Amino acid sequence: MKAVTLYRPGFLESALSGFDRYLDSFFTENVLSPARRVSSRLPPVDVREADSAYTLEAEIPGFDETGIEIRLDGSTLTIESKQGPGGETAAEASAEANAETAADPRYLIRERQESSFSRSFKLPQNADPEAISASFKNGILSLEIGKKPEAQARVIQVAKG
Asked: Exposed (0-12), middle (13-18) or buried (19+): which is 114, by Cβ within 10 Å?
């Protein structure tokens, strides 16, 4: 495996792969729809590869660095919210939103959701679990995942004979 991929337990992978192909074909028929959809409750993620590292960037507006937890369990990297946007836990946010909606009839439309999320990624074999760093700026979580030295490309000099 040469890339960072979404993590799905084995039994789900086989069950969902056919469904994913069906959805992909459905959405690619429409020019205005992207090939893959991610739930609106999950932060969108970009993953880039360079010679020495992978970079994973997640768009997490409304959170700050104290509300995000990053865990590495074997080769599975998980990004999870510890609290909802605004500082409260997801349960508190949900209870507060329900109480406000019931107590305050002035809401005519309420579309913003304050919920927690969790996304997991399977790291490739050439990723170095000891070389992962994270930063958070302007609602973007950036993870730099270094590659093992033996996996990095190197130039070999040819000696004169």
From this structure: middle
Q: Measure the CA–CA gap between 149 and 160, rounded to whole angstroms.
A: 27
Under 8 Å between Cβ of 71 and 78 = yes
Give me the count of residues in the chain: 161
Residue 21 phi/psi, 5-degree rounding, is -60, -40
Collect all residues with Cβ–Cβ distance below 8 Å to 122 and sequence separation of at least 6.
1, 4, 5, 6, 7, 75, 76, 77
Q: Say what the pTM is.
A: 0.60
pLDDT of residue 102: 55
pLDDT surpasses 90 at 10: no
Q: Which residues pair with 147 in a beta bridge?
A: 127
Residues 6 or more apart whose Cβ sits within 8 Å of residue 53: 131, 144, 145, 146, 147
Q: Give the E-state strand segments of the chain in sequence order.
A: 5-6, 45-49, 53-59, 68-73, 76-81, 118-122, 127-137, 140-147
Residue 156: pLDDT band (50, 70, 90) is confident
Please give the single-letter amino acid code of residue 157: Q
